[in-house]
Amino acid sequence: MQGVESIIKKRQKAGEKAITAGTVAILFAVWFCVTAFHLVDAKLVPAPLSVWTAFTGIVRNGYKNHTLLQHLGASLGRLLAAFSGAIIVAAPLGLASGFNSKIRAVWEPIIEFYRPLPPLAYYTILVLWLGIGNESKIALLFLACFAPIYVSCVSAVIGINEDYINSAYTIGATRHQVFFHIIVPACLPDLFTGVRTALGVGYTTLVSAEMVAATSGIGWMVLDASRYLRSDIVFLGIIIMGITGILLDRGIRILEHIVVPWKGKE
Prior knowledge:
10 helices, mainly alpha
């Protein structure tokens, strides 16, 4: 019976992959037809060949004194530094806040106040405090990534079935043991969901972080190219950011599958 279910699941996954590949192919076909028949001005929507030419040109010659890898490395360096810091700080704090109402009472007003704010609303303050270097950009991305992780951890702890906790106390478990052996494992699935959300929020904020006084980064390259109506480079940067974001998210999903193998299973 299990063998039959395994075969069915494999066929379903193969079918889903085929649908995904077909969707991507259709999008590229529409893009090619729109540009080939000049339905839209080439300055607004460049042809796929123009984007490829821009890619090969930047790979050979770079863009504004930086290679493509340097631009990508600058962006990913800022993002991953802030993202890693947010996980290290927000995850333990969120779990502790969910477990202890007094800790939550201290931090929840602060998080709820700045979480709805647009990043650029407080980026100018960060620039005044930290300067126009990478410090202010990393701080902006840190704050953008912090809130989703914190909120997901708090909600995960609050949503745990109290019977599990009471059962642990009944057999003599301490609060320390309950936290690390029941709370933390139970919250890992929601924690990874918050981490994936935080990565997406951080990547979208990356362009804002590179708008002010930056001279490198994929987001800066896109913004700089838009000033000169280089839509081919703009499209190239967007495609690179999209592919990079997919790869980073896929990496988190692989790690989640390793750390939380029981997720989604009865």
